[in-house]
Write a structure and sequence with these properties.
The chain is α/β, with parallel strands linked by helices. It is built from six helices and six strands, in the order H-E-E-E-H-E-H-H-H-E-E-H. Strands 1-2-3-4-5-6 form a six-stranded mixed β-sheet, with helices on both faces.
Length: 153
């Protein structure tokens, strides 16, 4: 699932919940955000990533880049502003070689999610969306199996 597909699914998910969405929004002179969703006083600022088909290193570089982009977007910490990194999760869940399984495990001891109010949003191939709140991110990441599962024939 490429980044555009993930972004479309997530936009639709937010809109179904009454949010207005904008994609590729310039929020300051140096930072463009993939998706902003607003409803009343609540605002989500989301960095979106996709799957890659060449090397496992692409997942590491792109997740780390997404985290850096997210950090640049954090301009206030309050109950109404939610920050998130959104990734496709089906390949990771299946334990495929080309997935986020290795890089996510490396963040399992990081306090950055809870301290800076960063959620992880998972989009699956069936277009379901799951939001992992900051207080649960470390537990969630610790449960990820970094092993590769053999594909059945």
């Amino acid at each position: 699932m490429n980044e555009g597909m993930v972004k479309n699914i997530l936009s639709q998910w937010f809109e179904e919940r009454g949010f207005e969405t904008q994609e590729n929004v310039q929020i300051n002179s140096e930072n463009k955000v993939d998706l902003i969703a607003k409803k009343e006083n609540v605002e989500w600022i989301v960095e979106v990533k996709g799957d890659y088909d060449a090397h496992t290193e692409q997942y590491t570089v792109n997740f780390d880049t997404g985290m850096g982009q997210s950090l640049k977007s954090i301009s206030k910490l309050d109950n109404e502003t939610k920050y998130a990194i959104c990734i496709p999760f089906s390949r990771t869940e299946r334990g495929e070689k080309l997935s986020y399984r290795l890089i996510l495990k490396k963040y399992s001891k990081s306090m950055v999610f809870e301290v800076l109010n960063i959620h992880i949003i998972l989009v699956r191939d069936d277009e379901s969306v799951e939001v992992i709140p900051p207080k649960d991110v470390q537990t969630f990441l610790r449960k990820i199996d970094p092993g590769i599962r053999a594909k059945s024939l």
